[in-house]
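Sequence only, no structure available. Ideas?
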Amino acid sequence: MAVHIEFKSKIPGAGQPDCDLNHGLAGWLKDKLQDAGIYVGTLNRYDWGFEIPIHARGGEYYAGLPTRGEGIASWHVFVDRRLSIRDRVLGRSMPADEPMVALIKEIIARDPQFKVVSVQEQH
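Reply:
I predicted one. C-alpha cells follow.
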C-alpha cells in the first residue's frame, strides 16, 4: 500500500512536453532528498512516470511521480516502502505516518511554489 501526497504547483514551463515537466519535478525532489541527507538512487523512467529509489532510515523506499498532462498544475507523488516477504505474508503495510512520507510532505510544503492538498493511503 502506498501513501499518495496530492499537491498543486506553479511550475514554470507549462508549454514543455509533459515528460520534461515530470522529469524536472522528479529531479527537484531527488535533489531535496539528498540535501536532507537521504541516499537516493538514479531516477528510473517508466511508461507511467518516474521512480526515485530511496535508501534511508532503516528501509528501502521509492517515490513515484506519475506522468501528468501538459500544463497540469495538480500533481501527486506516491511513497511506498519495499516490504520483506515476511511483512507481506503477515499483511503488514506502510502507514501514512511513516517518517519518509512526513519528510517528503515537508519538502513539498516548504517550497513556496507548492501547496499540499491531501495525504491518503491507497491500496
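The chain is about 30% helix and 35% strand.
Hope that gets you unstuck.
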